[in-house]
Design goal:
107 residues; alpha+beta; three-stranded mixed beta sheet; 3 helices
C-alpha cells in the first residue's frame, strides 16, 4: 500500500488529454477557492494513455478542445500549432521502449 502524507492529493493524468486538463484545472481552482493552497499539495504523475490504447490522434484531441473549452474557458486552452512530429512531451506515437512516468510534487 502506498501511503502519502495528509493533505496530499495524488493525481495520475494523461498530459495530452483534454478531459484530464479540465479535471486538473478544477482541482487547482477548487483548492484556491477553498483557501487550501498551504494545506493541500498535488502530487502529479503522468499516465500516458497511448501505452495502453496505442497511439492516439491529434485530430481526436483537437476536436475535444472546443467542447471542453466551453466548460472551463479559463483553463489556458491552445491548439497544437507545430507539425505532428514535434511533441512537447518529446515523443511521437508509440514508445519504442519502457518510458519512466514523469512525476512531480507541486504546491
Amino acid at each position: 500500500m502506498i501511503e502519502d502524507p495528509v493533505g496530499t492529493v495524488v493525481v495520475f493524468a494523461d498530459l495530452l488529454c483534454p478531459f484530464a486538463h479540465v479535471a486538473v484545472h478544477r482541482l487547482w481552482t477548487t483548492r484556491r477557492l477553498l483557501d487550501l493552497e498551504d494545506a493541500v499539495v498535488f502530487e502529479m504523475h503522468a499516465f500516458p494513455l497511448e501505452l495502453f490504447n496505442g497511439p492516439g490522434t491529434r485530430i481526436g484531441s483537437d476536436s475535444e478542445v472546443p467542447v471542453l473549452g466551453r466548460l472551463e474557458p479559463d483553463a489556458g486552452w491552445q491548439l497544437w500549432n507545430s507539425p505532428d512530429w514535434q511533441s512537447s512531451t518529446g515523443r511521437c506515437g508509440a514508445p519504442s521502449g519502457p518510458t519512466p512516468a514523469a512525476s512531480a510534487t507541486t504546491r
